[in-house]
Amino acid sequence: MDSFTIACVLGTFFFAAFLKGTAGLGFATTSLGVMAAYLDMRLAIPLVILPSLLANSMVMADAGGFGRVWRKFRLMYAAAVPGLFAGLWLLGESHGVLPRTALGVCMILYGAWGLWGGRLRLRHTRFSAVAVGLSTGLINGLTGSQIMPILPYLISLDITKDELVQAINTSFTIASVIMLLGLGRLGLLSLDAMILSGAGIVPVGLGIWLGGRVRRRLPEAVFRRVVMALLVLLGTGLAVRPLFG
Question: Packing angle between helix 161-185 and helix 49-63, nearest 10 degrees?
Fold first, then answer.
């Protein structure tokens, strides 16, 4: 990987972390949405694992209540595992078009759901737990994005803010560990990729810190809607790219 591409990757990490710190957007989804424009998804996905894993672990420790959340959502987490393996298999068999298009659709759905406002109200059942876990794992394994459909599902439940933060980041952490093992099994990890992924921790930390400072100075609701709209546009670009060769 040349110096310019490395600089682009680190800049992307900072940008995605800044958006996460400012508007609470998923780091992996935003990073991969940008990197898909200049990297093959099978090269891009391994790069986000370590920064995501560190950030998620820190948030889990801060939120607390892990045992209670684990007991409530353990079936959903378990269902995500076979979905992850299926998604990783599809990733290994693909040639770049399917993961990129799937990620574009995922970002459109996430952005549109955010613009809509998330007014849906659901009940957590065994069926919904399995369906959401399996589909989230499949999308995660194929695209590296960890937020659809688990994030809108969790927000639609009657749970506290801390429970939401703990539940979603527990899902992120489990998925990141399995993704790390699965990518290694597929031969998609390399020493260079791990070094660059580790180096990404620095811009990620800086981006989250700076984004938090900006959030306290700007009307977050308005900024979040703008970012959601940008995600829809970016996702649309990725999804329709195959139509234009």
Answer: 150
